[in-house]
């Protein structure tokens, strides 16, 4: 298989596996009363420079949908991008967790919701027969590797909040966005109008750990009950918390994301100047869409190195903290030797 | 804290942690297409001597409620014991996963549903104004450490199935029941009329791994979609599958359960003949309820060794595969030195 | 069939049918923008001496469950009496409308929740593994014809509200309770701590009309959207509103209830002194439970005059505004001629 | 207000109101055990020339969503037209009734789903991360007055059923379609591959009555329980059944629809040859979209005669069985006198 089909083909970062091992001694209180779980709110509050409540989850779908369930009533719709993971790749989990709210898919270039689409979607506010826009969910970095600038974020969240909507960020690749924009986690979230963040760790080094980060105290109250209710409260939560603490320690999350972004640029650099290869104008995070010739695609597929080829003919390539230079070299070699 | 308040205070069994480490190399397909996940159906089918579908989950609540969601419609009720974990300790997760079916709590001695209660509960079948009994869920071993005999199981499941109900077993401590009854997993499940089992591993050595085992092919179809929809499909499922495979290998599940059951008997033996201690007539699995004198309780609490004391004055004590003989000795010593 | 099996065997009161006919002219705006619908809030606010929001519904189940859906989150439980209609006779509608909250059935004599049961039920507040008590629902008059005194109501609602619960009254037979207690609608509801009332009209003269009466402005906002979402917003709502307005006009609701209560007393009076008949000590509203001899029961059944006989051997008898004196006489005659 | 803004501005047809009055005598068993309810399956089976189960409802939203809830699991999506009432005008009722299935809006000219869109939507079948297409819902006649031909219906339903989808028809204006196509109800439904029909009566003469007609026996079993669960089971159902029986009697449903369609043509005829008025090429049912000059629109609005003006500048005009020739004349006069 190709090492570049997704960042979730990678394993567990040694420091995180080590943290799991280190947490494995003696008896410990279950259900979040262990020492690691008790440390999470503090460590994440430090990182985000504001008091937060952390709800750890074992999948990105659970984290996103749990966060949304805290924000909307079932009479609401949730504005998402039409290419978002929440809309396309989470089955009907959003409906399950929210008790039957509706996703409202919006357009916008580069997988980013555009302001006009958002404004139009809010046109049904007050119309009794229509789902009532109740939340805005933005993916950062997006499903195609682009990022919202802080200004873009702020404009969208302000527009939404002026109409009473809550704001969520799907940060399955939040670290890659922070690395790309070289700003603080706070600047990309609550300072830009975000109420809750799904802070991804799994794609970026954890085994199975995502954290819902709540910035608004009025979202705190039901959160632990919703965690339990959705089957996300682990008895041995210490091992989930230990992953997240190790992920924060010494900025491993950011180091890994920088590595992943850099590996992607390395892969791009190696593909530059190969006849027939069309690279994107800009590589922002750890994902890029590259056009190859038919011969190149076929050769990649023959050697089981190809990423997923989209309808428009471009191939998605994704690096992670674990991408090997040898795999990059092998990929480049395969492309360049196609005729 | 007391080492005996629950079996979920234990950590990860070395063999299971080792399996996680061993699975941590190179790139692997996500979402269950890894080699470990692909092995699960085969290994569990061998164990249960019949073709099964395995849906791995990260919590017992998720496993139970996911299993039930495959069995009932939202117009149904689910017959459970009034002291069951599903009824008392899973928040409104059963309602969430099933889309609003209702739990119908039944009575019965020793935390076991009695036949008359079940028969009475089914009296509303066909009554348009009432929730329609749609499934029976039995806990094996039960929340107080008792076990259903094969005959008891068979009689209950037959009664339920004659009326069209599906049958589920909450096997968070299934291994302890198998160890206690010295029978095969098949005999305790599908041969005794069980359609689906929540096969617990977390309390018995895993980090966070439970498996829904489906015995009826007509339950298979929706199961993977329900897994995804409930946030239980992990991208790096290899590490969940690796835990479960290691748990089965060389009967680790059974060895651990036997150890836990034996440790419980050891603890009881040590408490025998201490003045004021009233032991249960029989110790079946890894949990027992013991009455102590007030002085004994206070001394245990003072030394942070006490288990949970119930309304009736008895203390729940629970051993696991990891219970240390030194902790057992310390506990006994504390009790015997109380005045 | 017996005229006394339920008050819902009656038809439409002539004044209400007349109101439907009178509303049947010309074109009228749909979905509640007709003149009758626009009048409802005003008329009901007058009746209850406080500003209310009225949500008309076509069934009692819909009214109760819609009201509850405005009060609780899906992590909540709703305290109800174990013999309540909401618990026993509304299928899993409460779970549907609330998105999966749980009913918590409480005990108490005369179908009235007793304070100790309520206090005990609230013991799980703050326990993460348990459904969180979120609302208290009281039936007035109850499913067996008794009534809560204003003091009893006040004590229960105060206890609930002190712990943050909302309070609902199932008033399918609210009119009968007002008639029995000879107090004002305000005194029996918001002045006694009730946040929302299901104000029944169907059993007491309407064709199919129940009104959710909201006393708390913070319950208003989502209510119209929940009405629509649950299929309770009629296009020709004028005919539903017209029923409710006619029901209020000249206190028809109260006149009818007084009649129904009186008819019940008349029936009881006629049964007095018949050998073998055991009447209740007190007849409060329009329902009573009477014990007959076996011969009497059989004779009533033979002549298709019997009400429903409960497990304890007593027969439920229910009068309505439409009960005929001739039917009362026939019933008494049948009983007295049994040997 | 304009008499032509919708067909639901009309009142109750005299024959239907008369039927309600005639059903208003004596005591009758509640909850569907009255003589009128007991007659429905037989009368509708005659009309549709096949055994059907009828579930009466009080709103179109309830009928549609109840029907869909019988057809899909919560993991499913339901293919609907992007301009359908179910998608645009039923709030999140589809999500509520189905327990969180998703609507999948498809394109197609004239408000009719086109085959290619349907085929494309079914492309996610088997993809674990995507909602699984589970039902196809077609509106007949459509929300803009067009109709599917029998061939079009058959092709769509066959395509859907070949992939395992169920098929529903939103027939809020089913009668208008039958009148337009001059075919039998059977030919437009089960013979064309429809599993369940929402048979509308409210817009076409009833007070508040819609009927879910189930053609497939395997949909029957849960239907009565789902009716109860969704608050659609009326205690005095006799008055709902009486409306539906009267609606069928002497083909009142068809007579009314023919009248409504004819009135629409009459209105169009009157508008023909007025300068600036652009009529549709064809008037199929009882709804048409007409373009007027700005002056005409303003004059209509000034006299409170205008229908709803869409974004494309055309005005929706809708006639019913009750449309008055005098209102038609007044409308035409207003348009023709605009300068």
* Helix percentage range of chain A: 25-40%
Please state the overall shape of chain A, judged from the principal axes of the Cα atoms: globular
User: Main sheet of chain A?
Assistant: 7 strands, mixed
Rg of chain A, Cα atoms, Å:
20 Å
Q: Which structural class should the secondary elements of chain A be placed in?
A: alpha/beta
Count of individual helical segments of chain A:
14
As a percent range, the share of strand residues of chain A is 5-15%
Q: If interface size is counted as residues with C-beta under 8 Å from the partner's C-beta, which chains form the largest one? A: C-D, 52 and 52 residues
Enumerate the strands of the largest sheet of chain A in spatial order, edge to edge or round the barrel.
Answer: 1-7-6-5-4-2-3
Q: Can you tell me the residue ranges of chain A where pLDDT is under 50 for at least 5 consecutive residues?
A: none
User: What's the number of extended β-strand segments of chain A?
Assistant: 9
Q: What oligomerization state is this entry in?
A: homotetramer
Order of helices and strands of chain A: HHEHEHHEHEHEHHEEHHHEHEH
Mean pLDDT of chain A: 97
Please report the distance between the alpha carbons of the first and last residues of chain A. Answer: 22 Å
Give the tags.
homotetramer, 339 residues, alpha/beta, 7-stranded mixed sheet, two-stranded antiparallel sheet, 14 helices, 15% strand
Description:
- 4 copies of one chain form a homotetramer.
- The first copy, chain A, is of the alpha/beta class and 339 residues long.
- Helix content of chain A is 40%, strand content 15%.
- Chain A has 14 helices and 9 strands.
- Chain A has a 7-stranded mixed sheet, with helices on both faces. In chain A, strands 8-9 form a two-stranded antiparallel sheet.
- In chain A, strand 4, helix 7 and strand 5 form a beta-alpha-beta unit.
- In chain A, helix 1 (14-22) crosses helix 11.
- Chain A is globular and about 60 Å long.
- At the C-D interface, helix 1, helix 3, helix 5 and helix 10 of C face helix 1, helix 3, helix 5 and helix 10 of D.
